[in-house]
Amino acid sequence: MSIKVEDYYPRETFNKMKAFADQHETPFVVIDTAIISQAYDDLRAGFDFAKVYYAVKANPAVEIIELLKDKGSSFDIASIYELDKVMSCGVGPERISYGNTIKKARDVRYFYEKGVRLFATDSEADLRNIAKAAPGSKIYVRILTEGSTSADWPLSRKFGCQTDMAMDLLILAKQLGLVPYGISFHVGSQQRDIDVWDAAIAKVKVIFERLKEEDGIVLQMINMGGGFPANYITRTNSLETYAEEIIRFLKDDFGDELPEIILEPGRSLIANAGILVSEVVLVARKSRTAVERWVYTDVGKFSGLIETMDEAIKFPIWTEKKGEMEEVVIAGPTCDSADIMYEHYKYGLPLNLASGDRLYWLSTGAYTTSYSAVEFNGFPPLKSFYL
């Protein structure tokens, strides 16, 4: 398998990023913010009626927060620490949603005291905490959706509740003095099957209708989460195609008078903007007759590549070395046997690859720095640079 840079970046863009990378010691991620800016514009063009809440967990860099703030984005926040960082960049509470359904009561109070009034929930215990700590706030309930088999990074089971419970929670929210505002779902990150949005939106439509007819509750918002794709080895449809199909699904169920629509992109905005640069530490075989080589790099699961767990996300890997290719196992530098990125999915790398050569992991702007361990085996967090 030979990766062509031109399939992922304009050659001029890649050359600029590589020239910068050549001046720094590995491992690190270099991110071109111009790519993020264009991705945001493309998403807004595709969904011109929707509000964008950037999922800060994808990459919480101040450079990215300030860029998206200036472009008019709102922000999906998962913790008080993200909240402090985003608000320190000048983002007002009216542009913030507390999207984590698992939260301490005192953290809810902290958000409320900072002025945030939009909260996600999926359980009665959490809802009652919100009612006490953030009275009068707007509530949206996250529902369970299918799509785990077609998403490269599924987000099912831990978050969300069944349809009947979602309705019960919204009724209870009204009784507790909260505002039952809407429904959210997430079809899974790097979702390749666009049709799963159709099923999710149909579920939401049922909830909207039943609450209105049976309980007089008029919901106003659908939060469709993220799931839009980045440019990895397994290719997907274009964002334009995603937008056309999802808008068709929305209009089939809700007509031309759509409720407020929120999108929570993370990966699709920033993944393509990053290149993770690593160095080959060793190339070895396990026996004299072993067919496979093991390529050990100075970056691994614990330093930014956790999404290679179960080989879920398959990053394009490029090297300057040329020549005959051979299948390899790719592993990280730590003293942990789990630190193997690719063993079953066979990457091909040049036979003449050697210690000291660089590997360029493309489309790594999302969930690399934010997943990097603080000091596992003493390795420092993954460095990042923003152009």
Automatic annotation (TrEMBL):
Catalytic activity of the protein: L-ornithine + H(+) = putrescine + CO2
An annotated GO cellular component: cytoplasm
Enzyme nomenclature, EC number: 4.1.1.17
Residues the record lists as N6-(pyridoxal phosphate)lysine modifications: K57
CC cofactor: pyridoxal 5'-phosphate
Keywords: Lyase, Pyridoxal phosphate
One GO biological process term: putrescine biosynthetic process from arginine, via ornithine
Catalytic residues of the enzyme: C335
GO molecular function: ornithine decarboxylase activity
Any coiled-coil regions, as ranges: none
The keyword Lyase appears for this protein: yes
SUPFAM superfamilies named in the record: Alanine racemase C-terminal domain-like, PLP-binding barrel
Location of the Orn/DAP/Arg decarboxylase 2 N-terminal domain: 36-271
Pathway: Amine and polyamine biosynthesis; putrescine biosynthesis via L-ornithine pathway; putrescine from L-ornithine: step 1/1
NAD as UniProt keyword: no
A Pfam family per the record: Orn_Arg_deC_N
Family: Belongs to the Orn/Lys/Arg decarboxylase class-II family.
PANTHER family assigned to the protein according to its UniProt record, in alphabetical order: ARGININE/DIAMINOPIMELATE/ORNITHINE DECARBOXYLASE, ORNITHINE DECARBOXYLASE 1-RELATED
Protein name: ornithine decarboxylase
Organism: Phytopseudomonas seleniipraecipitans
